[in-house]
Design goal:
Blueprint (H helix, E strand, L loop, with lengths): L6 H12 L4 H8 L3 H15 L16 H4 L2 H4 L38 H9 L4 H12 L5 H13 L15 E8 L3 E3 L2 E3 L2 E7 L5 E6 L4 H15 L5 E4 L6 E3 L6 E2 L1 H10 L2 E4 L9 H15 L7 H16 L11 H9 L14 E6 L6 E4 L2 E4 L8 E6 L3 E6 L2 E7 L21 H15 L1 H14 L3 H10 L6 H13 L5 H25 L7 H14 L1
Parallel strand pairs: 1-6, 6-9
Antiparallel strand pairs: 1-4, 2-3, 4-5, 7-8, 10-13, 11-12, 13-14, 14-15
């Protein structure tokens, strides 16, 4: 099976082919067999259709490092080249911002330090620098050597960050660390150490917990706000799932419960960038301070014992210390900041669960905890997001609130059907009231008939009453009222009896109309005319 080169090696070979390097020269400089180079050369020829002059048996070898790199290429103008044997040495002008690798370094990349440093500052990657060195400077080392050297240079060039100071009451920073070993189910285990630090005064709140779920995270926030006696305007936090569902540089997606906490306490949550602990350096340093100063070498039998110890340590030592950056006592600075904090709300946040539901295609309801809640019919068949707890149910469609209802007992339907059409939101009592109201509109006999039917058959009577009301679509109300009266007179309160009487009354009315029409027809002679005709026949007979 033929050797298959990596893509970076293949790209490098194509570049060398275009530079008219011989196959032997390429083979020696890259430690690749000539047959493999020749195979990729044929592929490159097919792609380009116009191969350059390339001698397959060319004996030219790649210049050695001392012949390939001249003093004019490496030694800057005005510097003296040191005469040595076998290796060309060069001097680099001193630069306080540039920490050079030790001159005794054996890396082949060291001889190309100036070129690598310039290309790295220009934004080139290690792969791009490697390719340029092979073509331009006759580099004979491996790509991994350049990659390691570039990594070292980046470590020697620290990134500068700007220090941001905040006014009183403006910001707090939140993060988790590890607490001291605590007895848990028969063995010692380190709990999570929650820390919230006010950015101005460095006043901090510490609490150890076993979990980092959203309920615990929110409860720690509320405990910290009560400890401070107020709420800062913004909170910087990490991208843990209890607060941030999806991390993003510009628009991170917050956990709905944590967003509700921010709205309830009127603060702005500001998630930091991923892998950017320097953006919340104050709380990072405070976590280290708590771990090193308060918890090192300690063990506790329960969480409450450790929290009680942290409260005492905070009051006695942490809050009374002179802070190393501000050079002032933490408590004195907190007294200045406390008046700038936002007031606490009257009630704590009520937590809720989150789920998705599909709106029923038949009655436009959703099921939550075994109960049923109506949804506007235009969302039938759609997936909706539900926030619910023991007090209320909120329904969202594409982050827009479409329904908010109080909870009802399991197995029951919510009585508020105002979102449904008027003809679809009847309850049983409302529907019965509607039937008797329609009976009263038809006539008093119909109302009396309906009451008698309800008295005799109870629930089964409402279907019969519904049938009587439906007769108004086909028959006049007067006939229906008359038929109901006859049904009552004969003590036969039944829909079929009323329908039969209505048909008879309709037939009698139709017959009377036909008889009246027959007596008044022009083709029918009067009796006097028949009498005269009879007398005439007798006289002439």
């Amino acid at each position: 099976m033929a050797n298959r080169l990596k893509m970076v090696q293949k790209e490098l070979l194509f570049i060398l082919f275009s530079q008219h390097w011989s196959i032997r020269k390429i083979s020696r400089s890259n430690n690749i067999h000539r047959k493999t180079v020749n195979r990729y050369y044929q592929e490159w020829v097919q792609l380009n259709q116009s191969p350059p002059a390339l001698v397959l048996n060319d004996d030219a070898t790649l210049p050695s490092p001392d012949s390939a790199i001249s003093a004019a290429q490496i030694v800057p103008p005005g510097e003296k080249q040191l005469p040595t044997e076998g290796v060309v040495h060069f001097q680099v002008p001193p630069d306080p911002d540039q920490q050079l690798i030790n001159i005794a370094c054996r890396s082949k990349a060291f001889h190309f330090h100036e070129h690598i440093y310039q290309k790295l500052n220009a934004g080139q990657t290690a792969r791009s620098i490697f390719q340029d060195l092979v073509i331009e400077s006759g580099y004979t080392g491996s790509y991994d050597c350049i990659k390691r050297y570039v990594r070292k240079l980046r470590k020697r060039s620290p990134k500068l960050y700007a220090r941001l100071e905040t006014p009183p009451g403006e910001e707090a920073q939140v993060d988790f660390g590890l607490g001291a070993p605590t007895l848990y189910q028969g063995r010692y285990k380190k709990p999570w150490l929650f820390v919230m630090t006010l950015s101005y005064s460095r006043k901090s709140y510490q609490e150890v917990v076993w979990r980092q779920d959203v309920e615990t995270f929110i409860l720690c926030h509320e405990n910290a706000f009560r400890f401070f006696g107020g709420v800062p305007k913004t909170i910087k936090l990490d991208t843990l799932k209890s607060a941030v569902l999806r991390a993003h540089l510009y628009e991170p997606e917050l956990n709905p419960n944590y967003l509700a906490l921010a709205q309830h306490y009127h603060f702005a949550p500001l998630p930091c960038k991923i892998k950017s602990p320097q953006q919340k350096g104050k709380v990072e340093n405070n976590i280290n301070y708590v771990q090193d100063n308060a918890l090192t070498g300690k063990r506790f039998d329960c969480l409450e014992a450790q929290n009680q110890y942290l409260r005492h340590w905070n009051k006695t030592w942490a809050s009374t210390r002179i802070h190393g950056t501000t050079k002032r006592q933490v408590n004195l600075m907190f007294d200045e900041e406390k008046v700038s904090l936002q007031p606490l709300p009257a009630e704590s946040l009520v937590l809720f669960k989150i789920g998705t539901r599909k709106v029923n295609m038949v009655d436009s309801h959703i099921e939550v905890n075994g109960a049923y809640y109506p949804i506007p019919p235009r969302y039938m068949g759609q997936q909706v997001t539900v926030h619910f707890n023991s007090q209320w149910v909120k329904v969202f469609y594409q982050q827009a609130l479409i329904q908010c209802l109080s909870t009802v007992a399991k197995g029951s339907f919510h009585p508020d059907h105002s979102c449904l059409p008027a003809n679809k939101n009847f309850s049983q009592d409302k529907y019965i009231q509607y039937l008797f109201r329609r009976c009263a509109e038809i006539g008093p006999a119909v109302t009396k008939w309906a009451r008698l039917a309800e008295q005799q058959r109870q629930q089964r009577a409402y279907r019969s009453i519904q049938g009587i009301v439906a007769l108004t679509k086909k028959y006049p109300e007067a006939i229906i009222n008359q038929a109901c009266q006859q049904s009552i007179d004969h003590h036969a309160v039944s829909y079929h009896v009323v329908k039969s009487v209505i048909d008879q009354l309709q037939s009698q009315q139709q017959l009377q109309i036909e008889i009246q029409f027959t007596q008044q027809a022009d083709v029918i002679r009067s009796p006097l005319e028949y009498q005269q005709l009879l007398l005439t026949e007798v006289t002439h007979g």
